[in-house]
Design a protein that fits this description.
The structure is a single chain. The protein has 158 residues and is an alpha+beta fold. The chain has one domain: Muramoyl-pentapeptide Carboxypeptidase, domain 2 (2-Layer Sandwich), CATH 3.30.1380. Helix content is 51%, strand content 21%. It has a 4-stranded antiparallel β-sheet with strand order 1-2-4-3, with helices on one face. Strand 1 and strand 2 form a beta hairpin. Helix 1 packs parallel to helix 4 and helix 2 crosses helix 5. The longest helix has 27 residues.
């Protein structure tokens, strides 16, 4: 019989395979138009975090809002081990160490699929859109294998 740790590892693997398959299927069908799913998914995740985790996003500064999102995803939800937010003018990056979807994201990237289904990016974008009226567009993704850190980069557009 599997230990609890083994079951959790296997569940995460199955989840990554499932997410990879759905995301790849959307990309194959719609290409870059698949980005249209980012806002509704982010909105739904944000609403769930606000309701289930008591998340209260306040403030007028994108950095403050994003720091709270990253803290919650790392400390309360566990979708990543740690995260770092960088805001430089209209450029924003969210670096996620040991993201729970890093395996699926790597497979997708190897096939040229853009990171439209990134959970931290989707939740962060929803929070900024709802609280500050700010929209975004993805401008890239970086991967550091040594630290197992995925960095999603996007640009604020008004």
């Amino acid at each position: 019989m599997a230990t609890e740790v083994q079951k959790q590892q296997r569940l995460l693997k199955v989840f990554n395979v499932g997410m990879y398959s759905m995301i790849k299927g959307l990309w194959d069908m719609f290409g870059e138009s698949a980005f249209a799913t980012t806002n509704p998914i982010g909105d739904r995740l944000l609403a769930a975090l606000e309701k289930e985790s008591g998340l209260e996003i306040q403030g007028e500064d994108p950095n403050d809002i994003l720091q709270e999102i990253v803290r919650l995803l790392a400390d309360e939800i566990g979708t990543m081990k740690a995260g770092t937010v960088t805001v430089d003018g209209d450029k924003v990056s969210i670096a996620c160490q040991e993201c729970f979807l890093r395996e699926a994201t790597g497979w997708l990237e190897a096939e040229g699929v853009q990171p439209f289904a990134c959970v931290p990016m989707g939740v962060a974008a929803a929070a900024m859109r709802k609280r500050l009226g700010i929209r975004h567009r993805v401008i890239g993704r970086g991967w550091d294998a040594a630290t197992q850190t995925c960095t999603i980069k996007f640009q604020i557009v008004e």
